[in-house]
Every structure is written in structure tokens, then in C-alpha cells.
TrEMBL record:
<dbReference type="InterPro" id="IPR009327">
    <property type="entry name" value="Cupin_DUF985"/>
</dbReference>
<protein>
    <submittedName>
        <fullName>RmlC-like cupin domain-containing protein</fullName>
    </submittedName>
</protein>
<dbReference type="InterPro" id="IPR014710">
    <property type="entry name" value="RmlC-like_jellyroll"/>
</dbReference>
<dbReference type="InterPro" id="IPR039935">
    <property type="entry name" value="YML079W-like"/>
</dbReference>
<dbReference type="Pfam" id="PF06172">
    <property type="entry name" value="Cupin_5"/>
</dbReference>
<dbReference type="InterPro" id="IPR011051">
    <property type="entry name" value="RmlC_Cupin_sf"/>
</dbReference>
<feature type="domain" description="DUF985">
    <location>
        <begin position="12"/>
        <end position="161"/>
    </location>
</feature>
Length: 186
């Protein structure tokens, strides 16, 4: 697997793109919110939502991971620079959840993907790969920059953070212990 870094420093990207700290971890800025609205089938009473929204999202050495969260809408993750691993947990009613690990990056020949689609009802978390973080020569160019497009558009009412209790219920004691550091303390 090829180690991939940012073309500029994370600090430079934060300044150039006007990024702010994201409550999920990392940095972001909303780049588009469509004026057209649609109802969302994922919330009772079908409230109106923007047709779609888009953000830049950046992980860097200073903020190397996000926290487990779920969006009720579909989210398209489009790679720009660097790479990151996504851990996706899909609950299975009455059974063990499906856990998938995907790397978003440019090294498609070695299994990385430039487009990651996360459907509704999936818990997700992103983090920089350990090999990239340990590569001290990369310095502040360690990171991952993506665009996220959410359809129907993002709204905080359609978002939830995974709790420690929820993680334990979902995964059981052993796996929950491994992933607990990616649960945001609320």
C-alpha cells in the first residue's frame, strides 16, 4: 500500500478553504446548500430538506479522527487528497452488525476507493491510517481532504452520535472496547 499525503499542509488547507472545527472531529465548511427542497422519508412528518448539501471535510495530525455518527440521509464521500480509513457499522435487526473497513484514497490498485457511499442507518467513523501518522517526514501534510454530499441535504435533526452504551449494545463488550475511543463523550 502506498502512503498518500496532502499536497499542502493541513493548516494551509484550513486557512485556504475557511474550514472550522467539526463537532464530529476534523474540520469542515459547507460549500453548497441547494435552494430546492424535498421532503425526507427518514423523519416523521416528512419535513422539508434541501435537495442536497456539500462540505469539504479534512482530517489532519491535529485532528486525526472523527467520531461515530449516523446520518439519516445518504452521504457520498469524494476523495481529493491524502487518505483515511472509514469504519462502517450496519446494524442487523436480531443479529450481529456488519462491520466494514474502507480506505478512501488514490491507490485504487491496492483497494482504496475515490468514492465511498454510506447509506442510511449506518454508523460511520473516519481516521487517518497509522502508517501515515507514523510517517514523521510528512509532517503537517499527513491528512485526508474529501467532499461530502448529503442527499436529502444535511440537517442536525437527521444526525446522531453513537453513545458508549449504544456501541456496547451494538457490538458487545470485546469489539466495543476497541472502538470506544471513537465515541464522542457528550
Amino acid at each position: 500500500m502506498v502512503i498518500s499525503h496532502l499536497q499542502e499542509t493541513a493548516k494551509s488547507l484550513v486557512a485556504q478553504l475557511g474550514l472550522n472545527r467539526h463537532p464530529e472531529g476534523g474540520y469542515y465548511v459547507e460549500t453548497d446548500r441547494q435552494k430546492e427542497v424535498v421532503g425526507t422519508p427518514f423523519v416523521e412528518d416528512d419535513p422539508p430538506r434541501s435537495l442536497a448539501t456539500a462540505i469539504y471535510y479534512l482530517l489532519g495530525r491535529e485532528s486525526p479522527n472523527g467520531y461515530f455518527h449516523m446520518n439519516k440521509s445518504v452521504t457520498y464521500h469524494v476523495h481529493h487528497q491524502g487518505r483515511a480509513e472509514y469504519v462502517l457499522i450496519t446494524p442487523v435487526p436480531g443479529g450481529a452488525p456488519t462491520v466494514e473497513r474502507r480506505v478512501i484514497g488514490a491507490d485504487v490498485e491496492n483497494g482504496e476507493t475515490r468514492l465511498l457511499i454510506v447509506g442510511t442507518g449506518v454508523w460511520k467513523m473516519s481516521r487517518l491510517l497509522e502508517a501515515d501518522v507514523l510517517d514523521e517526514a510528512a509532517g503537517d501534510k499527513t491528512g485526508c481532504l474529501i467532499t461530502e454530499v448529503v442527499v436529502p441535504g444535511f440537517h442536525w435533526e437527521d444526525h446522531a452520535f453513537l453513545t458508549r452504551e449504544g456501541l456496547k449494545e451494538l457490538m458487545g463488550d470485546v469489539e466495543a472496547t476497541e472502538l470506544a475511543r471513537y465515541v464522542k463523550d457528550t
